[in-house]
Amino acid sequence: MRNLRAAGGTGELRVGRRVEAFTADELADDEKPSVLRAYLRRWKFEVGVFFDGVDASATDATLRRIAPGYPVFRLR
Fold this sequence. Notes:
Number of helices: 3
Strand content: 15-25%
Number of domains: 1
Structural class: alpha+beta
Mean pLDDT: 91
Shape: globular
Strand order of the largest sheet: 1-2-3
Low-confidence stretches: none
C-alpha cells in the first residue's frame, strides 16, 4: 500500500524473468464495496481474520464503513 502510493502509482509485476510494468489508481472508499465483497467471497478462509467479522454477506454500508482501512487499487 504505502510503497505503491510512494511510487506514484507505478510498479512492476515479476514472474520469473518476465516483467510487466503497470500503473495503478487507488479507488475511493465509495468504490470499494463490490471489490471487497468479491475478495472476501474468494479468499475469506485466508483473510477473514483481518476483517473483524465482516464477510461477503455484509451490506454496502458496512463495507463502506470499513473501506478506509483497506487499500484497493485498479491496475492498468
